[in-house]
Protein backbone atom coordinates (compact mmCIF):
# COMPACT_ATOMS: atom_id res chain seq x y z
CA UNK A 1 0.00 0.00 0.00
CA UNK A 2 1.54 3.34 -0.99
CA UNK A 3 2.13 5.72 1.86
CA UNK A 4 2.79 9.44 1.84
CA UNK A 5 3.76 9.85 5.48
CA UNK A 6 7.42 9.53 6.44
CA UNK A 7 6.93 6.86 9.07
CA UNK A 8 10.25 5.46 10.31
CA UNK A 9 8.60 2.02 10.11
CA UNK A 10 8.27 2.30 6.36
CA UNK A 11 11.34 0.44 5.06
CA UNK A 12 11.34 2.48 1.87
CA UNK A 13 11.74 5.70 3.84
CA UNK A 14 14.15 4.62 6.55
CA UNK A 15 17.73 5.81 6.15
CA UNK A 16 19.89 3.01 4.81
CA UNK A 17 23.45 1.87 5.34
CA UNK A 18 25.51 -0.55 3.26
CA UNK A 19 28.38 -2.40 4.91
CA UNK A 20 30.72 -4.17 2.54
CA UNK A 21 33.73 -6.41 2.53
CA UNK A 22 36.30 -5.38 -0.09
CA UNK A 23 38.49 -8.28 -1.33
CA UNK A 24 36.38 -10.77 -3.25
CA UNK A 25 33.26 -8.65 -2.70
CA UNK A 26 33.32 -5.03 -3.88
CA UNK A 27 36.77 -5.69 -5.34
CA UNK A 28 37.60 -8.58 -7.64
CA UNK A 29 39.62 -11.25 -5.80
CA UNK A 30 42.32 -11.34 -8.50
CA UNK A 31 42.35 -7.97 -10.30
CA UNK A 32 40.99 -5.74 -7.47
CA UNK A 33 38.70 -4.16 -10.12
CA UNK A 34 35.22 -2.88 -9.19
CA UNK A 35 33.81 -1.78 -12.54
CA UNK A 36 30.66 -4.00 -12.36
CA UNK A 37 29.68 -2.31 -9.08
CA UNK A 38 30.03 1.26 -10.37
CA UNK A 39 26.40 1.86 -11.45
CA UNK A 40 25.11 0.83 -8.02
CA UNK A 41 27.79 2.83 -6.20
CA UNK A 42 26.71 5.92 -8.16
CA UNK A 43 23.05 5.26 -7.44
CA UNK A 44 23.62 4.80 -3.71
CA UNK A 45 25.71 7.97 -3.60
CA UNK A 46 22.96 9.92 -5.38
CA UNK A 47 20.46 8.64 -2.79
CA UNK A 48 22.72 9.60 0.12
CA UNK A 49 23.25 5.99 1.23
CA UNK A 50 26.69 5.53 2.80
CA UNK A 51 28.67 2.52 1.54
CA UNK A 52 30.93 1.56 4.43
CA UNK A 53 33.98 -0.64 3.76
CA UNK A 54 34.46 -3.30 6.45
CA UNK A 55 37.67 -5.08 5.66
CA UNK A 56 40.77 -6.87 6.86
CA UNK A 57 42.79 -4.17 5.08
CA UNK A 58 44.72 -1.58 7.06
CA UNK A 59 43.79 2.07 7.44
CA UNK A 60 46.75 2.93 5.15
CA UNK A 61 45.39 0.65 2.42
CA UNK A 62 41.83 1.94 2.70
CA UNK A 63 42.60 5.66 2.50
CA UNK A 64 43.59 5.70 -1.21
CA UNK A 65 40.94 3.10 -2.04
CA UNK A 66 38.03 5.04 -0.55
CA UNK A 67 39.10 8.06 -2.59
CA UNK A 68 39.18 5.95 -5.76
CA UNK A 69 35.82 4.39 -4.91
CA UNK A 70 34.27 7.79 -4.10
CA UNK A 71 33.49 6.78 -0.50
CA UNK A 72 35.17 9.64 1.36
CA UNK A 73 31.91 10.74 3.03
CA UNK A 74 31.46 7.34 4.66
CA UNK A 75 33.24 5.83 7.66
CA UNK A 76 35.24 2.63 7.33
CA UNK A 77 36.23 -0.35 9.45
CA UNK A 78 39.79 -1.61 9.03
CA UNK A 79 41.62 -4.74 10.18
CA UNK A 80 38.52 -6.90 10.71
CA UNK A 81 36.89 -4.58 13.22
CA UNK A 82 39.98 -3.44 15.12
CA UNK A 83 40.05 0.12 13.74
CA UNK A 84 37.28 2.58 12.80
CA UNK A 85 37.77 5.71 10.68
CA UNK A 86 35.09 8.36 11.14
CA UNK A 87 34.53 11.40 8.94
CA UNK A 88 33.30 14.55 10.70
CA UNK A 89 29.62 13.73 10.11
CA UNK A 90 30.04 10.45 12.01
CA UNK A 91 32.23 11.61 14.86
CA UNK A 92 31.04 13.05 18.11
CA UNK A 93 32.56 16.19 19.58
CA UNK A 94 32.51 14.75 23.11
CA UNK A 95 33.95 11.35 22.27
CA UNK A 96 36.52 11.81 19.54
CA UNK A 97 39.57 13.94 19.42
CA UNK A 98 39.57 16.36 16.51
CA UNK A 99 40.05 14.77 13.11
CA UNK A 100 43.54 14.49 11.62
CA UNK A 101 44.72 16.22 8.47
CA UNK A 102 42.76 13.70 6.40
CA UNK A 103 39.52 14.82 8.10
CA UNK A 104 39.11 11.50 9.92
CA UNK A 105 38.86 10.61 13.58
CA UNK A 106 40.39 7.17 14.21
CA UNK A 107 39.10 4.85 16.93
CA UNK A 108 40.85 1.65 17.99
CA UNK A 109 38.18 -0.91 18.86
CA UNK A 110 40.56 -3.79 19.58
CA UNK A 111 44.04 -4.20 21.11
CA UNK A 112 47.45 -2.89 20.22
CA UNK A 113 49.44 -4.68 17.53
CA UNK A 114 52.53 -4.93 19.79
CA UNK A 115 50.63 -7.11 22.28
CA UNK A 116 49.36 -9.41 19.50
CA UNK A 117 52.86 -9.94 18.07
CA UNK A 118 54.32 -10.63 21.50
CA UNK A 119 51.70 -13.29 22.28
CA UNK A 120 52.06 -14.90 18.85
CA UNK A 121 55.73 -15.56 19.43
CA UNK A 122 54.96 -16.93 22.90
CA UNK A 123 52.39 -19.42 21.52
CA UNK A 124 54.61 -20.44 18.60
CA UNK A 125 57.31 -21.46 21.04
CA UNK A 126 55.01 -23.03 23.62
CA UNK A 127 53.03 -25.15 21.13
CA UNK A 128 55.80 -25.70 18.61
CA UNK A 129 53.54 -24.70 15.71
CA UNK A 130 54.66 -23.29 12.37
CA UNK A 131 53.17 -20.16 10.81
CA UNK A 132 54.44 -17.03 9.11
CA UNK A 133 53.02 -13.66 10.08
CA UNK A 134 52.69 -10.87 7.55
CA UNK A 135 55.26 -8.82 9.44
CA UNK A 136 57.75 -11.68 9.05
CA UNK A 137 57.31 -11.88 5.27
CA UNK A 138 59.61 -9.90 3.01
CA UNK A 139 57.96 -7.35 0.77
CA UNK A 140 58.72 -9.63 -2.18
CA UNK A 141 57.06 -12.63 -0.52
CA UNK A 142 54.02 -10.56 0.30
CA UNK A 143 53.75 -9.33 -3.29
CA UNK A 144 54.01 -12.93 -4.55
CA UNK A 145 51.47 -14.25 -2.09
CA UNK A 146 48.80 -11.55 -2.43
CA UNK A 147 49.26 -10.36 -6.00
CA UNK A 148 49.37 -6.79 -4.64
CA UNK A 149 51.70 -4.27 -6.28
CA UNK A 150 54.68 -3.30 -4.16
CA UNK A 151 53.33 0.08 -2.95
CA UNK A 152 50.04 -1.57 -1.86
CA UNK A 153 51.90 -4.41 -0.16
CA UNK A 154 53.83 -1.81 1.81
CA UNK A 155 50.55 -0.30 3.04
CA UNK A 156 49.20 -3.75 3.91
CA UNK A 157 52.05 -4.18 6.38
CA UNK A 158 51.17 -1.03 8.34
CA UNK A 159 49.09 -2.86 10.93
CA UNK A 160 47.48 -1.15 13.95
CA UNK A 161 45.27 -3.78 15.56
CA UNK A 162 45.54 -7.19 13.86
CA UNK A 163 48.16 -9.57 12.47
CA UNK A 164 47.55 -11.79 9.43
CA UNK A 165 49.36 -15.11 9.25
CA UNK A 166 49.79 -18.11 6.98
CA UNK A 167 49.17 -21.37 8.83
CA UNK A 168 51.77 -24.00 7.98
CA UNK A 169 50.43 -26.90 10.02
CA UNK A 170 47.55 -29.33 9.58
CA UNK A 171 44.18 -27.80 10.43
CA UNK A 172 43.79 -30.13 13.44
CA UNK A 173 46.38 -28.12 15.32
CA UNK A 174 44.44 -24.88 14.89
CA UNK A 175 42.13 -25.64 17.83
CA UNK A 176 44.95 -25.67 20.41
CA UNK A 177 46.46 -22.54 18.89
CA UNK A 178 43.09 -20.81 18.99
CA UNK A 179 42.57 -21.79 22.64
CA UNK A 180 45.94 -20.36 23.57
CA UNK A 181 45.15 -17.07 21.85
CA UNK A 182 41.72 -16.96 23.46
CA UNK A 183 43.29 -17.23 26.90
CA UNK A 184 45.03 -13.94 26.00
CA UNK A 185 41.74 -12.37 24.89
CA UNK A 186 42.73 -12.74 21.23
CA UNK A 187 40.71 -14.15 18.33
CA UNK A 188 41.70 -16.13 15.26
CA UNK A 189 39.58 -15.46 12.15
CA UNK A 190 39.84 -16.89 8.68
CA UNK A 191 40.08 -14.40 5.81
CA UNK A 192 40.42 -15.00 2.08
CA UNK A 193 44.19 -15.49 2.00
CA UNK A 194 45.29 -15.26 5.62
CA UNK A 195 44.26 -16.17 9.11
CA UNK A 196 43.87 -12.97 11.16
CA UNK A 197 44.66 -12.54 14.85
CA UNK A 198 42.74 -9.67 16.46
CA UNK A 199 41.61 -8.44 19.86
CA UNK A 200 38.14 -9.18 21.17
CA UNK A 201 36.46 -7.52 18.21
CA UNK A 202 35.31 -8.60 14.78
CA UNK A 203 33.50 -7.21 11.77
CA UNK A 204 30.16 -7.82 13.51
CA UNK A 205 31.01 -5.94 16.70
CA UNK A 206 32.42 -3.02 14.70
CA UNK A 207 29.33 -2.86 12.46
CA UNK A 208 27.01 -2.94 15.51
CA UNK A 209 29.08 -0.15 17.04
CA UNK A 210 28.68 1.98 13.89
CA UNK A 211 24.93 1.31 13.66
CA UNK A 212 24.56 2.43 17.29
CA UNK A 213 26.61 5.51 16.54
CA UNK A 214 24.37 6.32 13.58
CA UNK A 215 21.24 5.95 15.70
CA UNK A 216 22.64 8.09 18.47
CA UNK A 217 23.65 10.89 16.11
CA UNK A 218 20.67 10.82 13.73
CA UNK A 219 17.94 9.61 16.05
CA UNK A 220 16.59 6.96 13.67
CA UNK A 221 17.20 3.27 13.13
CA UNK A 222 18.66 2.62 9.69
CA UNK A 223 17.83 -0.27 7.39
CA UNK A 224 21.11 -2.12 7.02
CA UNK A 225 22.54 -4.33 4.30
CA UNK A 226 25.88 -6.14 4.41
CA UNK A 227 27.79 -8.01 1.71
CA UNK A 228 30.75 -10.36 2.07
CA UNK A 229 32.32 -13.50 0.65
CA UNK A 230 34.42 -14.95 3.48
CA UNK A 231 34.09 -16.63 6.87
CA UNK A 232 35.38 -13.44 8.49
CA UNK A 233 32.25 -11.69 7.14
CA UNK A 234 29.80 -13.99 8.94
CA UNK A 235 29.57 -11.90 12.15
CA UNK A 236 28.88 -8.79 10.06
CA UNK A 237 26.25 -10.57 7.97
CA UNK A 238 24.45 -11.60 11.17
CA UNK A 239 24.04 -8.15 12.75
CA UNK A 240 22.32 -6.42 9.81
CA UNK A 241 18.75 -6.51 8.49
CA UNK A 242 19.60 -7.94 5.07
CA UNK A 243 22.69 -9.83 3.94
CA UNK A 244 24.39 -11.07 0.81
CA UNK A 245 26.91 -13.87 0.66
CA UNK A 246 28.88 -13.22 -2.49
CA UNK A 247 29.95 -16.37 -4.25
CA UNK A 248 33.60 -16.85 -3.32
CA UNK A 249 36.69 -17.83 -5.26
CA UNK A 250 37.32 -20.36 -2.49
CA UNK A 251 35.54 -23.43 -1.13
CA UNK A 252 35.14 -22.13 2.43
CA UNK A 253 31.71 -22.36 3.97
CA UNK A 254 29.97 -19.04 4.67
CA UNK A 255 26.65 -19.76 6.38
CA UNK A 256 25.54 -16.87 8.60
CA UNK A 257 22.62 -17.22 10.98
CA UNK A 258 20.48 -14.76 9.02
CA UNK A 259 16.94 -15.18 7.71
CA UNK A 260 17.18 -12.34 5.18
CA UNK A 261 20.01 -13.87 3.19
CA UNK A 262 20.71 -13.85 -0.53
CA UNK A 263 23.53 -15.82 -2.16
CA UNK A 264 24.88 -14.31 -5.37
CA UNK A 265 25.24 -16.46 -8.46
CA UNK A 266 28.33 -14.65 -9.72
CA UNK A 267 31.53 -13.72 -7.89
CA UNK A 268 33.23 -10.43 -6.93
CA UNK A 269 31.88 -6.97 -7.81
CA UNK A 270 29.34 -8.40 -10.28
CA UNK A 271 27.96 -10.52 -7.42
CA UNK A 272 28.01 -7.40 -5.25
CA UNK A 273 25.82 -5.53 -7.76
CA UNK A 274 23.60 -8.60 -8.06
CA UNK A 275 23.14 -8.67 -4.27
CA UNK A 276 22.33 -4.97 -3.89
CA UNK A 277 19.88 -5.24 -6.80
CA UNK A 278 18.24 -8.27 -5.19
CA UNK A 279 17.45 -6.37 -2.00
CA UNK A 280 17.01 -2.81 -3.20
CA UNK A 281 16.45 -3.03 -6.95
CA UNK A 282 12.98 -4.56 -6.81
CA UNK A 283 9.83 -2.49 -7.05
CA UNK A 284 8.72 -3.24 -3.48
CA UNK A 285 12.10 -2.45 -1.91
CA UNK A 286 13.40 0.20 -4.27
CA UNK A 287 15.44 3.11 -3.00
CA UNK A 288 13.42 6.31 -2.77
CA UNK A 289 14.64 9.86 -2.78
CA UNK A 290 13.38 10.17 0.80
CA UNK A 291 16.53 8.33 1.79
CA UNK A 292 18.39 11.52 0.99
CA UNK A 293 16.74 13.10 4.05
CA UNK A 294 19.50 11.60 6.14
CA UNK A 295 22.03 13.86 4.44
CA UNK A 296 20.18 16.92 5.67
CA UNK A 297 20.07 15.95 9.33
CA UNK A 298 22.33 17.76 11.72
CA UNK A 299 24.99 15.30 12.82
CA UNK A 300 25.96 17.39 15.83
CA UNK A 301 22.40 17.70 17.06
CA UNK A 302 22.03 13.99 17.71
CA UNK A 303 19.54 12.57 20.16
CA UNK A 304 19.89 9.89 22.74
CA UNK A 305 22.89 8.16 24.17
CA UNK A 306 26.05 8.15 22.13
CA UNK A 307 28.02 4.91 22.30
CA UNK A 308 31.60 5.50 23.39
MG1 LIG B 1 36.54 -11.07 1.19
From TrEMBL:
The keyword Secreted does not apply. One of its GO terms (molecular function) is hydrolase activity. InterPro entries: HAD-like_sf (IPR036412), HAD-SF-IIB-MPGP (IPR006381), HAD-SF_hydro_IIB (IPR006379), HAD_sf (IPR023214). It comes from the Bacteria. Keywords: Hydrolase, Magnesium, Metal-binding. Gene3D superfamilies: HAD superfamily/HAD-like, Putative mannosyl-3-phosphoglycerate phosphatase, domain 2. This is HAD-IIB family hydrolase.
Amino acid sequence: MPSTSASPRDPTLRPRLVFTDLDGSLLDHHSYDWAPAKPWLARLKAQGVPVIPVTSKTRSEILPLRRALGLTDAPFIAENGAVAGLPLSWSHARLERGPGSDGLAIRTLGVDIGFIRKRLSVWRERLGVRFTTMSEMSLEELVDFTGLAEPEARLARMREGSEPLIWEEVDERLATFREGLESDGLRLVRGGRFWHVTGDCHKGSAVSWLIERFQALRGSRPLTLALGDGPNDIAMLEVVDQAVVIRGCHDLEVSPDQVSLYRSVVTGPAGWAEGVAYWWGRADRRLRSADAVVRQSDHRGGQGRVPA
